[in-house]
Design goal:
This protein is of the alpha/beta class. It has a single domain, classed as HesB-like domain (Hypothetical Protein Aq_1857, Chain: A, Sandwich). Helices cover 17% and strands 45% of the residues. The protein has 2 helices and 9 strands.
Length: 107
């Protein structure tokens, strides 16, 4: 199944990489954190790991490590601008609950 990138997310990833001047894509993972247990982690990928799963849509690449993949299976990565706020949105069907501040989630 994998993950889905919206066109807005893909365009934002491409813009970030162009501004940075290097990189293959973004790595999306999860880590233990926050009051609900886990948080999303994004970082630039300059060199892919052989273990990473690659998801590519609209010309943008997202790499996911095998430990994070079960928590992210079916996720839609979107990018939205609402008023003065903008950022990635994680629409995760595995998410059972999220903390009030939106920084962490549980599956």
């Amino acid at each position: 199944m994998g993950i889905i990138l919206t066109e807005q997310a893909a365009q934002n990833i491409q813009r970030r990489l162009e501004k940075r001047g290097k990189g293959l894509g973004l790595r999306l993972g999860v880590k233990p954190s926050g009051c609900s247990g886990m948080s999303y982690q994004l970082e630039y990928v300059d060199e892919a790991s052989a273990e990473d799963r690659l998801f590519e849509q609209f010309g943008a690449r997202v790499y996911i490590d095998p430990q994070s993949l079960p928590f992210l299976e079916g996720l839609e990565l979107d990018y939205a601008r609402e008023g003065l706020n903008e950022g990635f949105r994680f629409n995760n069907p595995n998410e059972k609950a999220a903390c009030g501040c939106g920084e962490s989630f549980t599956v």
